[in-house]
Amino acid sequence: MLYAILCYHDEDMVGSWSKEHDASVMQKLSVVQDKLAKQGKLGPVARLLPTTAATTLRKENPPLVLDGPFAETKEQLLGFYLVEGKNLDEVLDIARDLGEANPGGTYEIRPVGYFNQGGTKA
């Protein structure tokens, strides 16, 4: 089963990390990612740019386009993992490993159902 691990954290806190601290966290995460890749369980991983780069489309009549994130929250969605797991318990173990590499914040885990398996065409 495919699961999404959505990574939430305080964007201001993460943005205030020194380049050295950020590189250290990314290195620790890469250890977990490498292990998952070798096991054939790692799908796409994305680190999102800051919410200041976001654009929101509100589905009103007519639709409204806004600069910035949809809502002001304490924690922002900063990235995600797609992982293969036998069950939720296995994915919780993966999320715990990620949490040890990058303390703080929250991981939301959701099973993924395919809507359209098509890919992009060159």
From TrEMBL:
Domain YCII-related: 1-114
Annotated InterPro entries: Dimeric_a/b-barrel, YCII
Pfam (any one): YCII
Family: Belongs to the YciI family.
This protein's name: YCII-related domain-containing protein
Organism of provenance: Bradyrhizobium elkanii
